[in-house]
Design brief:
Elements (H helix, E strand, L loop, with lengths): L6 H30 L1 H33 L2 E4 L6 E4 L3 E3 L6 E3 L11 H4 L1
Antiparallel strand pairs: 1-2, 3-4
Helix pairs in contact: 1-2
Bound molecules: zinc ion.
């Protein structure tokens, strides 16, 4: 993963990035009509298509994040005490970014918390 944050938060971030890029491309394409007139319309059309693709990717990312969060494990963070979600066996807390794990062999603090989570 690219950022030191919880996986669900990271997916949301990527969704936001694709939304902003898509909108930015479409705005640039529209600006092309103003700048180049008739020729700009073709460029605007191409930019619109790319903008739409980017927006579709962002929707897919959001949808995927939603699907993943339904299968995420709910647990109380031992570090900050807040309710957080984690994906897979190892993830970071959504609030304090402490690395959490369900795998007892990777845990540094071995207590019975894993069994309940
Ligand atoms: Zn925490």
């Amino acid at each position: 993963m690219f950022f030191k944050s919880a996986k669900i938060n990271e997916f949301r971030l990527w969704g936001l990035v694709f939304t902003l890029v898509g909108m930015g491309i479409m705005i640039l394409g529209t600006a092309g009509i103003v700048l180049w007139g008739q020729a700009g319309k073709i460029i605007a059309g191409i930019f619109m298509v790319f903008g739409m693709i980017s927006l579709l990717i962002s929707v897919a990312v959001y949808f995927w994040a939603g699907m993943m969060s339904t299968s995420a494990t709910m647990l109380q963070c031992p570090e900050c005490g807040r309710q957080t979600k984690m994906l897979g066996k190892t993830d970071r807390c959504m609030f304090c970014r402490t690395i959490l794990t369900l795998d007892p062999s990777q845990a540094t603090d071995l207590n019975a918390e894993e069994a309940k989570a």
